[in-house]
Amino acid sequence: QLQLAESGGDLVQAGGSLRLSCAASKVIVDINYMAWYRQAPGKERELVAEIWGSSSSTRYIDSVKGRFTISRDSAERTTYLQMNNLQPEDTAVYYCNIPPYWGQGTQVTVSS
C-alpha cells in the first residue's frame, strides 16, 4: 500500500507561481510513472502532466506547456509540479497519481 499526500496549494493572483509537492509513504525509486491531475468545479478530472523514469521523459497537456514542470526526487520520496504564470483557468483541485494510488488533493485558486 502506498499513501500519497499533496501540499502547496494556495490562493494566488494571475501570473503568480506555486510549487505543489506529493510525498509518498515509501521510497519511489522503483516506480517508473507518476502524474498530476486536476479537477475544476463541475468538470471531469484531467491529466495535466506525466513523468517516466528519472525525469528522462515528461508530457503535458497543451494548456500548461511552457508554464508547468513536473519533476521527482526519489531520495525524498516526492514528486513536484512547478506552476508558473498561473491563470484563473488553472483553478482546480490538483491530485498526485502513482497508479493505482491517489492523494487527497490540494486546492489551487487563481484570482484574476
Give a topology summary.
Blueprint: E1 4-7, E2 11-13, E3 18-24, E4 33-39, E5 46-52, E6 57-60, E7 68-73, E8 78-83, E9 92-98, E10 101-102, E11 106-111
Parallel strand pairs: 2-11
Antiparallel strand pairs: 1-3, 3-8, 4-5, 4-9, 5-6, 7-8, 9-10, 9-11
How does this structure look, described?
With 112 residues, this protein is mostly beta strands. It is globular. Helices cover 0% and strands 53% of the residues. The strands form two sheets. Strands 2, 4, 5, 6, 9, 10 and 11 form a seven-stranded mixed sheet that branches. It is built from no helices and eleven strands. The model has no long low-confidence stretch (mean pLDDT 93).
Give keywords.
112 residues, mainly beta, seven-stranded mixed sheet, globular
Radius of gyration: 13 Å
The largest sheet is: 7 strands, mixed
Assembly type: single chain
**Number of separate strands:** 11
| Pattern of helices and strands | EEEEEEEEEEE
Shape: globular
Question: Between the first and last Cα atoms, what is the distance in angstroms?
Answer: 40 Å
State which percent range the strand residues make up.
over 45%
Helical fraction? under 10%
Q: What's the helix count?
A: 0
Q: Kindly state the mean pLDDT as a whole number?
A: 93
Helix/strand structural class: mainly beta
Low-confidence stretches: none
What would a concise description of this structure say?
The protein is built from no helices and eleven strands. The chain is mainly beta and 112 residues long.
